[in-house]
Every structure is written in structure tokens, then in C-alpha cells.
Write a structure and sequence with these properties.
With about 230 residues, the chain is an alpha/beta fold. It has 5 helices and 12 strands. The chain binds flavin-adenine dinucleotide.
Length: about 230
């Protein structure tokens, strides 16, 4: 892990109260898709009693020449500082950190289970798999409240991967949605997987989401060693 100063190139709203920040990527920063960085504000306009750094998954692929981070707005000083950061301004990052990466074995089937901004490390992994023309069998279950709050759900459907399935699901009724409804549960998982066994389950999200998925997968008799968690807290 090294420390870098990175410059903001672009920021865009990607869903309700959700922003994607694109920074210049340091030439010597090497990371694996799925890893995260510790972001720190340099010029603080807002302060509070919470830490001035946050863990954020890198949402771009290692091959991209930029670094993407996606996060929800909040009242914390960190979030207010980053959402008001002007283009050209810098922050500090420590990276890379974490082990949320795909196994070397390309025959392992991958199942991603996530909700909300938990999509970030998965986006990095899927972008890389697409660039590598991977033929790995991958199924993504991506849960959101409604389409307005679902960051990049359309992008997730469009990856050009040979053996990829994307299941977007909304937990509240939406007028503009014809896809799946409801929380990710055993019924939904079984509906889209050819077999529940012989897969690695990658679960990303809040502690609450992680616990719900741990319970579901355990009830489905998925072995503990086949479940990998990325706990956002
Ligand atoms: C490995 C990893 C990767 C992550 N990747 C991402 C990512 O890609 N995108 C992303 O958005 N997040 C990510 N997170 C989570 C991120 O680090 C933040 O915790 C999260 O975004 C919330 O930040 P916040 O500043 O809004 O709230 P925080 O200040 O971090 O607080 C979290 C919650 O605790 C409560 N809280 C804490 N302190 C106080 C206080 N003093 N007063 C009131 N309430 C308080 C609030 O309810 C708040 O919503 C990741 C976390 C980890 C560990």
C-alpha cells in the first residue's frame, strides 16, 4: 500500500443522492479489481467528530487510466467535502487494500450478491473481465429500492461477457420497471442459477445486507468457505 495525491477530473450523479467521482490515476498505482482505497480530504471545508478518511472500493478497472469511486451523499463532513470538491482539486489516497478479488481458477463459477453502492467493487471486476474477454460463468444479483436510486443498473446489464447474467431487482414498486421485484432470497437465487453448488458467492454491502445474505446462503447449504464478504459496515 502506498500514499498518493490524486486530482478530481469529473463528478457525475449516477442515481438519487449518489455520485461517481473520477480521479486521475497515479501511473505507479497497481491494484486488483475488487480492492479498495482509503480516501482523505486535504482541504476541509466541513468538519465533524468523525474521521476525515473513508474506505472506498475502486469502481474502475485496473486497466482504466482513471480511478472511479461511487458513493452516496450524507451529512458527514467527509461526504460534504467530497461532494463539493471542485474539478482539479486533490485528495489523498492510500491504496491498494483488500482481498475481494476473483480466484485464479477460471472454472470457478461466480455469483455476486449486492445492494446499493455495494456494486462498486463488482463494477471494477466486471469491467476487467470484459476487457480480458473472460468466459467465466458470472451471475450478478443487484438489489435496489427503485430505479431512481439504483446506481449504474443499466450499465451492469450491458457487459459484453459470454457467460454473464445480470439480475436487477427492485424492492419497491416502480412504474418504469419490468424486471424482478423483491429482496434477494433463496427463491430468486435458485431461479437464476443452474446449480447452487460449485460456485463462489461474493457478497458486498452493509452489515445488515451481509447478515441477511449469510443467513440465506447458509440455509441454502452453501459451504462457508465458498462465501466471500466485503463488509462496508
Ligand atoms: C472495504 C470498504 C469499501 C467501501 N466502499 C464504499 C463505496 O464504494 N462506496 C460507499 O459509498 N461506501 C463505501 N464504504 C463505506 C464507507 O467507508 C462509509 O462508511 C460510508 O460511505 C458512509 O460514510 P458516511 O461518511 O456517509 O457515514 P459515516 O460517518 O461513515 O457513518 C456511517 C453511519 O454511522 C452513523 N454515524 C457515525 N458517526 C456518527 C455521528 N457522529 N453522528 C451521527 N451518526 C453517525 C450514521 O448513521 C452513518 O450513516 C466502504 C467501506 C469499506 C469498509
Amino acid at each position: 500500500m502506498n500514499e498518493y495525491t490524486i486530482k478530481l477530473k469529473k463528478k457525475q450523479k449516477v442515481a438519487e443522492e449518489t455520485w461517481m467521482f473520477t480521479f486521475q490515476k497515479p501511473a505507479d498505482l497497481k491494484f486488483q479489481a475488487g480492492q479498495y482505497a482509503m480516501l482523505e480530504i486535504i482541504e476541509e471545508r466541513f468538519t465533524d467528530d468523525r474521521p476525515k478518511f473513508r474506505a472506498m472500493s475502486i469502481a474502475s478497472a485496473p486497466q482504466d487510466n482513471h480511478l472511479d469511486f461511487i458513493m452516496r451523499e450524507s451529512e458527514s463532513a467527509f461526504k460534504k467535502n467530497i461532494t463539493t470538491l471542485e474539478i482539479g482539486k486533490e485528495i489523498k489516497i492510500k491504496a491498494p487494500i483488500g482481498h475481494f478479488s476473483l480466484p485464479e481458477d477460471k472454472n470457478k463459477k461466480i455469483v455476486f450478491l449486492t445492494a446499493g453502492v455495494g456494486i462498486t467493487p463488482i463494477r471494477s471486476i466486471l469491467r476487467e473481465e470484459e476487457l480480458k474477454k473472460s468466459e467465466r460463468k458470472i451471475t450478478l444479483f443487484y438489489s435496489n429500492r427503485n430505479v431512481e436510486s439504483a446506481a449504474l443498473y443499466k450499465e451492469m446489464e450491458k457487459f459484453k461477457l459470454k457467460n454473464y447474467k445480470c439480475v436487477n431487482t427492485m424492492t419497491r414498486k416502480c412504474t418504469n420497471w419490468n424486471g424482478e421485484y423483491g429482496r434477494i432470497n433463496d427463491e430468486m437465487i435458485s431461479k437464476y442459477l443452474d446449480e447452487v453448488e460449485n460456485s463462489l458467492y461474493y457478497v458486498v454491502g452493509t452489515k445488515k445486507f451481509i447478515e441477511a445474505m449469510r443467513k440465506t446462503l447458509t440455509e441454502m447449504k452453501v459451504e462457508k468457505e465458498n462465501i466471500i464478504f466485503d463488509n462496508f459496515g
